[in-house]
Amino acid sequence: MLQDVTQIERLRYKPTIQITTILVGAIGGQGGNVLVEWLFLAADLSGFRAQSVSLPGLSQRGGATSYYMEIASLPENNKIENPIAELEKAVFGQHPFPGMVDVLLGQELLELGRLVQQGYASKRTTVVANSQRFYTTSEKMPAFDGRYPTEKIVEAVAQMSGAYSIIDVPQIARQHGLGDLSSNALMLGALSVLPGVLPIPVEAYRNAIQQFGLAVEMNLKAFEVGRSYQIEELQREANATQAKPEPAQDPLPRSLAALPKPLFNANGAADSGEPVPAKPRRTINLIPVAHSSGNRAEKKDVAALIERHSNELPLKWKADFRALTAEIQAQFPEKLHWALIEAAYQCADYQNLAYARRYLKEVARVFKLDSETHAWKLTEAYARVLSMRTTYEDAVRVASLKIQHGRFSRIRQEMKVADGQVLVLTDYLKPDAPEIYGIFPNALVSPMLLLGKLTGIGTWAEKKYFTLQLHPQPNTFSGYLTFAFLTWFKPLRPVSHRANREWKQIGNFTRDVEKFALLDYELAMLVVESGRLVKGYGDTRRKMFEAHDRFVIKVLEVSIKVESKCKTGNEESAYPLTLALGKRALRLVAQDDRGSGWAEQLADWALGEFKNNTPIPEIIKGLEPKAKTLSTKA
């Protein structure tokens, strides 16, 4: 294969012709085809030959799209009598080869990472990318944060490319009043600034945008914004570089100093060992641009938060909410103010201010066991998890969100519904029996469920797993009335059967945190982290309740009992094995339905080794993901 690539290069790269290869990676719906069309038009307007090949995807997260383009140009100040005829001799490729891409454009960061992983980035490659992410299904499925680390992608790009510029395009677009669809033009503007990357003059890009005729005014503005941003970044990096003493070695710019040894020279002859560029092209003198993450830490303005939330709640609650926030600021340390005030607002918006006070009462139980020595980490983490647990999505909550003020106008804007067009919304709901009877008072439901169990009807109904399929249209009178009727059950929520079940679970969770906090602070943090397992609704939520209980009872509590019998009192951590086992087991439980079984298998193995006097460091090493194979029958 290597020899085939060499032969292709010898045929394609004539001594008088420069061929620049461009690869664009995106996801369906981002307009990658538009970006390539602009590049093609700009090359054509510059008097060059170009060819593009695309592999379209779907307008969904699952559809990866790629576009490949080659531009044939002549060197500057050439003395060729018939340039057009000379360019006709260029031989274009139909697809990119790893290590032979000059420009790599990534409209989505993970798609850029895929292309880098496949070997398309090399030291001859200039990367211009959008830091925006559209998360994959596999990233969304885990109970915890399943997102692939952005830092790893950026690090790979920095290591593999010759020069790179990763830009927070959405943030820059928002700062200049531009929409999401302007990202292509903004990236094109950033690319046009980089010296020596493409042979296309800047005016050709502008003319290409105008000739293509798609949202010309907005895209031209975005193009100039991208240029201005990149110019500022290049100048900033240049100033930073000038302030540093130049190294004694490696005098070439990064993009040339790290070029790989070519397989052949510029004339297609066998390589003689001289460090010549891989093919005739302009010298790149580009300073790599630092990654802009857009996640700069901002000082949290608690006063502004209180003011905003006070105005978002009903007017009659405004004074009481401010009084509640004053109590929070008096009772808890400053580090917790933002999280607790935000959570109190969420609870008040979910139910009422009394519900928010009930939430704070639970937080105070854990706060008593925390200390400033640990920077109140336990209380802060518990408060965040409890906020999520107390604002569970029942039928009343779903109904209120479906007819929430602003939902219809937001959908019309997102779907680009023109004035005069009729918009019909249909919501597909499938509540099961517990979700239906869960909104009724517990005093009414519990006796009926007990009677059902005694007669056997309840067991039969559970096996049948009844669901009610509803297709209401909330922007019609009947559909709106259906949802509005459900919201009338909101005053009954605190005494509902669902609330009774949820708050029993919350009480158990809080007692677990208190119990483990008395044993070991880090173990208590782990229990709080496990509380994040419980999310979703319907059968999914019930399964996660079970998974959480199995983790605490069959992994943590069992491990503590075994380890406490052999404690010496000299350990840095009170329960080092339990802590390491718990962290690994929790990751397994969060993966999918089989995780609880895997976690229990792992606990059995680890505690068995511990009973056999295997040193704890060796057991902990064996807990690593690649060190232990678990049965799929779990």
Automatic annotation (TrEMBL):
Keywords of this entry: Oxidoreductase
Pfam families: DUF6537 (PF20169), POR (PF01558)
Name used for this protein in its record: Indolepyruvate oxidoreductase subunit beta family protein
Residue span, DUF6537 domain: 341-546
Superkingdom of the organism of origin: Bacteria
Gene source species: Candidatus Chlorohelix allophototropha
Positions of the Pyruvate/ketoisovalerate oxidoreductase catalytic domain: 28-227
UniProt GO molecular function: oxidoreductase activity, acting on the aldehyde or oxo group of donors
